[in-house]
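Run log, item B.
One chain of 520 residues. Sequence copied directly from the ordering sheet:
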Amino acid sequence: MLFIKLFLSYGLAVFLVRGDAVPCVSRKFDQDSTVCVCNSTYCDAPGIEGGGLLWTYFNTFTTTKDGLRLYRDLGTFDDQVTPNKYVFTVGNNTRQMILGFGGAFTDAATMTMNSLSPQTRHRLIASYFEQNGLEYTMGRIPMASNEFSNRVYSYDDVADDFELTNFKLPDEDIKFKLPAIRDAVRASKRNVTLFGTPWSSPSWMKTNGNMSGPGTIKDGEQFLNTWAKYFVQFIKRYTELGVNIWAMTVQNEPSDGFKENFPYQCLGWTAETQRDFISKFLGPALKDNGLDYVKLIILDDQRTFLPSWPGVVLNDPSVAPYVSGIAVHWYADDNVSTNVLDETYFDFGDEYFLLNTEAAIRDEFDKSNTVRLGDWQRGERYFIDILQDLKHGVSGWVDSNLALDMNGGPSWAGNEADSAVIVNTDKDEFYKQPMFYAMGHFSKFVRPGSKMLEYSTNLPNDSDLKAIFFTRLDDSIAANFVNTNENEIYNITITDYRVPGYLNYQIFPKTFITFIWYRI
């Protein structure tokens, strides 16, 4: 009986590991790695993760600069440690719970999706949200326009319409964003949590009379009340059209509203004015309209403002009950220590989650080089930033656009960027970049409800090999590793006291790899 059980389990495991995977059709452009090409009839897929493996086996999913893309394989635990240089010992202490990973349903992303044939568009959404894709569980929705739009618009451009009688969702929402969101939610077997973000109030509410450029909400309760009602109307309209809003960030990058000559949509807030707006206007408006289930997320700016910004807002007892989380962006991450994340998590992590809500890569000095098809280093930047954030208390990570065109747009402001998926409308195909697979190593395997798991290692802190471990709701472990070294092979051993064996492995240069195993 034991033999039959072992045989059936192993046979099923091999089928699940290899049977439903669809290989990448790779194409080399002028960068150091490749993209995977998808069209109306074909698209690669890592498939569905094998579950219920005996403790003698583990899954691996590997992405390499040389061209592997979430390649699945099966390994066996060894009876003894082989001579390895680096040992990782999995502990049992956990930290923050994971909320999820995803991308933004911007005008640019959803309009670009719609430039494809229906079949190819379906494959793009499936690549992100279906069970044999990356299984994204989060989506960000701009509240009206941002720089990734074809034009500047609000939902009510009629001056002094304090009752918002002219509030209306335009074609950008009705024809592009909402259909894409509904299709994504239908495609997913997991729950997709959606949050909205404003870039600017209508121009008539703003001190400079323009949605773009520096400015704040005009003084006076009338304007602040109306701006709070604007949030309420957005949530209600989306809900009526079949899209439930889980949360709202209070403002995208509030510091932009104070930057001289800032060219894009923005609205300036200090920590003090944001605190007062939430406690006196936005929080009560949501509650009075039966929308207090919608979570409010503060900051939504660089980690430069940590931990002082949440300190100002959340230490006020009148505002704290309305707030659920703190959002950060990645643009200052190379220049600001992770210590500020640790301090924020230590001060507020028991009550408020931390979430990275925006990341985009662009070449500020050479606009013609903004989109780099197959750039491995950009994939590494994504992987390392996600790993670093999660190690220091962040609960999820959201990309800034689900897809962009070959120029990194459209953008009314010429603020193009690279994207995990680039769409070639002329050929009715799209390209999955190394950034796409970097996201996938987290979104697919570090499921919502997972918790970061502490470990010990003899690996030096300055090593080119980085690792992070998670315990998942089904009592399995997911471990993500990245080797950024161009030449060195790392021999590792992973020991888990709840698995009677040793995971011995060689991690090759320029590799992302996920290990998954089930505990006894």
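Observations after the first pass:
- The two ends are 20 Å apart (CA to CA).
- Residues 2-97+451-518 form a domain with the Immunoglobulin-like fold (CATH 2.60.40.1180).
Flagged for discussion on Thursday.
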